[in-house]
Amino acid sequence: MEYHPGGEDELMRAAGSDGTDLFDQVHRWVNYESMLKECLVGRMAVKSAVPKGMLPKSQPTNPLAKESPVSPSYDWFQTDSLVTIVIYTKQKDINLDSVIVDYQDDSFRAETIIKDYSYLIYIGLSHEIQEDFSVQVVENVGKIEIVLKKTENTSWTCLGHPLENHNLLIPKKDTGLYYRKCQLISKEDVTHDTKLFCLMLPPSTHLQVPIGQHVYLKLTITGTEIVKPYTPVSNSLLSEFKEPVLPNNKYIYFLIKIYPAGLFTPELDHLQIGDFVSVSSPEGNFKISQFQELEDLFLLAAGTGFTPMVKILNYALTNIPTLRKVKLMFFNKTEDDIIWRSQLEKLAFKDKRFDIEFVLSAPTSEWNGKQGHISPALLSEFLKRSLDKSKVLICICGPMPFTEQGIRLLHDLNFSKDEIHSFTT
Ligand code: FAD
Ligand code: NAD
């Protein structure tokens, strides 16, 4: 028991019963026959040798039989060239978005997000490893396997020493932001003031930003670290537009408006290709389950508030079988401010479920589309359900006054809290 990497409690789950299934769930790759041979102390007698009166009065209880909050555990094993770390989350809805892995300065860190909690493996490794590693998730049992490559083919006697919060399940809000340095790969003009930035994650990071979540970018500006939130997007609305050279999940794209008098964005704009920016782990409270059985999706975006809508739009049109209608109302000051206008129009042409409506607050006299700010008249006309009782979700994002006013108007129009998702920090 002392040596079991998953701990005594994990072993006790199988005490007094046939533990084969439990063993297979977590150690399928282990040759248990050879282990059992080592542990065999003798065969159990067929007939009880204990006189009746000597049986213990009460059966020992399994300490984990009572349902306590499930804390993950981990285990590791090695071959000559590899070290595999296995995290048993004991959760079913775990996927590659749920785990963020970094190897920096000889420290290995794997953060698994389980609902509003974070389970951390954080170790100063005893030996060097190569930069790249693989991460796999066995979704039905919630098992995460991280395979590290040893730099030297030696046998490790231990993984290393524990660092802060190692092997603890703590509320996500208490974990603090963790950053890794990403390289600027490209920067393209999208409008007169908005650019598409492409950053590349280091090979020693596994990170996928879930739909609807944002990250923080960090730069040191005149000696002070400045941090601002940004929402990753896909590289285009029409996925066939560009073929990525590297696997897609090594790149993170951002649409960022440069404010000439702003604190952060001018510095970001001054970065050269090849320069580094620190990128945090993702945050946000949008849940993909909000899409379940969805029939009508309404997106209300103002200015760069369009950014969370990009992945939502891509995901919704490809992954929600019940979806009938997606409508985007996109508020901008002028025509020149509209991000990806022609892509949006092409998408609306290509996919009949998608409609786009542009609303300008400061149009030129040539504009014959919708004008003004968010208003009851605009919304009541726009938010028509495709069927009387269709399941609807409205996502709203933009400047704070826009979002706050929008939420008030949506409540006035009798949409419930569950039918509205607003993007704020
Ligand atoms: P700031 O210094 O904040 O200034 C912004 C503008 O306000 C400038 O024009 C400045 O002159 C003016 N200003 C500043 N202070 C004042 C003041 N006191 N009075 C009047 N005017 C003032 N932005 C994006 O472009 N893309 C995104 O994907 C994105 N995602 C976001 C996600 C979240 C969750 C949030 C909360 C924000 C997001 N933003 C995004 C906005 C982003 O975080 C920054 O706020 C934005 O880039 C401006 O940063 P800045 O430091 O350059 O400008
Ligand atoms: P902008 O100044 O170009 O304005 C775009 C439109 O927003 C305007 O045309 C108008 O219709 C509307 N608007 C602006 N101010 C308004 C007000 N006071 N009341 C009602 N409507 C108003 O916008 P921008 O410079 O692109 O700024 C986008 C904003 O979105 C930023 O504040 C940014 O922080 C926010 N944002 C938030 C997130 C998030 O996830 N929370 C993501 C991206 C952007």
From TrEMBL:
Domain Cytochrome b5 heme-binding: residue ranges: 1-45
One Pfam short name: NAD_binding_1
Entry's EC annotation: 1.6.2.2
Keywords, in A-Z order: Endoplasmic reticulum, FAD, Flavoprotein, Oxidoreductase
Main localization (coarse): endoplasmic reticulum
Cellular localisation: Endoplasmic reticulum
Record-listed FAD binding positions: 229-230, 255, 257, 307
Gene3D superfamilies, A to Z: 2.60.40.790, Cytochrome b5-like heme/steroid binding domain, Nucleotide-binding domain of ferredoxin-NADP reductase (FNR) module, Translation factors
Cofactor(s) listed: FAD
GO CC list: endoplasmic reticulum; mitochondrion
Top class in the EC scheme: oxidoreductase
Region of interest called Disordered, as start-end residue ranges on this chain: 52-71
Domain of life, source organism: Eukaryota
Domain CS: 69-160
UniProt catalytic activity: 2 Fe(III)-[cytochrome b5] + NADH = 2 Fe(II)-[cytochrome b5] + NAD(+) + H(+)
Domain FAD-binding FR-type, first and last residues per copy: 177-289
GO terms, molecular function: cytochrome-b5 reductase activity, acting on NADH; FAD binding
UniProt protein name: Cytochrome b5 reductase 4
Gene name of this polypeptide: LOC105295277
